[in-house]
Amino acid sequence: MTETVVPSTTHRSRWITAGILASLLVAAGLVGLTVPSEGEIGSPFDVTTPIGEPGVGRDIAATVHSVQRPTRVEDGGWVGEGPSVWVVADVAAEAVLSDKATSLDYAAIVIDEVTYSASERPSNTLLDWPLSTGISTRGWLVFELPERILESTGAASARLELASSALNDIRFDSRLVTVIDLTALPTRDVVTISGPEWGRR
Amino acid sequence: MTKLSTPPASIPDAEADALPPARAIASRGWWRTNLAAVVVTLILAVTTVVFTSYKEWSDYFGYRAVQPVTVDESAPIDFGGATWRVEPAAWLTAAEKSSLTLPPSTEVVLVRVWVEPTAIVPPGCLVELQESGGSSPTRVFSPTSDFTIDLDVTPGAVAYCPTDAAGPYLLEVPFVLPNTVDGDLTLQVSVAEELPRFLSISVPAKQ
Q: What ipTM was estimated for this complex?
């Protein structure tokens, strides 16, 4: 019977293997901890500005001049009234880098993570309006919100979100955000919408 | 010290003697034992990265105007199934602008291109104006509709490249630019079939 002595290099290689395995497990754990959540993957980059201040994103620059809460909105022959809460925003927007297929095709008010897109019912609004590079266009955005929205907890910190994109895809792109207190908005009896005005800031 | 057991008793002594001792295996080294597998793995990894990158980047740039073919004004060039001749760009004067419906603080440059199709199917095109090297980042302006600004264009001229043109035609497009433009202007004419190549014509700044 012959006894064989295990060389020390075999021990060392086992420790090295174990070390590599442990490192890989730690690295995998770190990746798992830091990976973006499903909602974060592809989410837009927010640029937050107050009312009256210009916000500049990658290919959109906009200023929310005012936000009001009228009881009645008129746009030519169309009238918006009734139990809904109407919010109208006076906005000037332009393209920054390129106006090729660039329009204001995303406008929404987000309250308690519920998104209310700008109304398509009035026709003379800035929604879907083509934006020009370096030349501002000013117009209205109209939002029709549920009757009891002002009683919700998020009404005091609603987000007015604006973005431009091709094919309505704002992933990985800029999103301009203005936080508004819906309960404290100036109220009016009537706001009359007029068509977007090219060249007005 | 840990000791390995001796070869199993069922193995005859002669055969056991022929087995390579553990020390001999260790001395061959991990690298020597696995060298072929490591080399093959590396070759496969590098090949995968190279081919995947080439495919993705060639797809990305293959459909974008990234290779300018520089042309002088008034110099005809055969490109994408037509002969193109770009007339010197015309900046409208204040008097000419006064009759138009324009936003404040803007300038208008009128671009005219003579196009003589040579292919059986005349090419479509995309015309843009690019500003670079100014105080703004590189930015792109699309043509404005002559209806929008109430511009009277040359009779018979068109604002796009008709793919059913029966003969030569004049492409005439106005660009409305903010007066903040202070960089170099380049007219870019792209034909889808020629991408990533496109015609690039320098446009002199307004005097």
A: 0.82
